[in-house]
Write a structure and sequence with these properties.
Elements (H helix, E strand, L loop, with lengths): L8 H4 L4 H9 L2 E2 L11 H4 E2 L5 H17 L9 H13 L2 H22 L6 E6 L9 H6 L6 H10 L6 H12 L3 E9 L3 H10 L7 E5 L7 H14 L2 E8 L2 H4 L6 E4 L9
Parallel strand pairs: 3-4, 3-6, 4-5, 6-7
Antiparallel strand pairs: 1-2
Helix pairs in contact: 2-4, 4-5, 6-9
The protein binds magnesium ion.
The site of magnesium ion has 7 residues, from loops.
Length: about 270
């Protein structure tokens, strides 16, 4: 996976967003960092005395910090949430979460394959977006919004990179003769571009790719559950179902489910 890392050196150093803002504004930190947790940003930071520029930065930072603090009357500002999400990616925490999910699922597949019965046809189910394919470039560029025309252009490019630990998991399952089924909420009209994208990341040999019918009116969860039921009905045992959304995982027809982190959007 191409781990998106900001050109900002403080981001590479893994500094929290509030520290990065402080660094940008040139504001000193008080000796007791616990003070940051106790009240508004205006109480948390002190400007360097006698420096007008610093005082201006202090006010700006205070306003930003106020935007980041929830109160009883006013929810935390949307911008603060977006900064938090970008920091989650830029500090590498997201990549580490993805690695943990893939490692956990791989361990389970290994254990389950070791006690496979004679003739048992094992399968895993994987979602695609933010499970195997990484759309962070698009998510970031769109500022966390969904515009259908922009999304369609992105899919047509077929250039989403693989989430590498998940691609490794895919190859591991295949090496153990476990069938892999992709069940995605992408509609049928995106099938060819999706197949092209999968080919591009070196993902061959999957048993099936299920896209939602173009005129699907139900939920993603309903579509995905119905498809898993069909796979089981064909005589396979789904040992693992892996996805980034609850809607990928609810409804049964899998021995175990694995939730991949995705705080960026919700698909029902
Ligand atoms: Mg997904």
């Amino acid at each position: 996976m191409r781990n998106p890392v900001s050109a900002d050196p403080s981001a590479r150093a893994g500094l929290p967003v509030v520290d990065r803002m402080r660094q940008i504004a040139g504001v000193k930190r008080r000796t007791d960092p616990r003070a940051e947790l106790s009240g508004s940003g205006l109480q948390c930071f002190a400007p360097r005395a006698g420096h007008a520029r610093r005082a201006k930065a202090w006010v700006a930072l205070g306003l930003l910090s106020l935007g980041g603090c929830a109160t009883l009357d006013e929810p935390r500002n949307l911008d603060a949430h977006k900064q938090e999400l970008r920091a989650y990616v830029e500090t590498g925490a997201y990549a580490r979460g993805l690695e943990r999910s893939a490692a956990e699922a791989t361990r389970w597949i290994e254990q389950r394959v070791a006690r496979r019965s004679d003739g048992e046809q094992l399968a895993i189910v994987m979602d695609l977006d933010e499970t195997l394919l990484l759309n962070w470039t698009r998510i970031d560029a769109s500022d966390f919004t969904y515009v259908r025309a922009d999304w369609d252009r992105w899919v047509a490019e077929a250039s989403a990179p693989a989430i590498q630990p998940m691609l490794d998991l895919f190859h591991y399952a295949r090496s153990k003769n476990v069938d892999v089924f992709f069940i995605t909420g992408r509609p049928e009209r995106h099938r060819r571009d999706t197949e092209r994208n999968l080919q591009r990341i070196g993902c061959d040999g999957y048993r099936g790719l299920s896209c939602a019918p173009d005129d699907w009116k139900g939920t993603a969860a309903e579509f995905k559950m119905a498809r898993r039921r069909q796979i089981v009905g064909e005589g396979r045992t789904i040992i693992a179902n892996i996805g980034d959304q609850a809607s990928d995982l609810v409804g049964g027809f899998a021995e175990r489910t694995f939730k991949v982190p995705n705080p960026f959007y919700l698909s029902k």
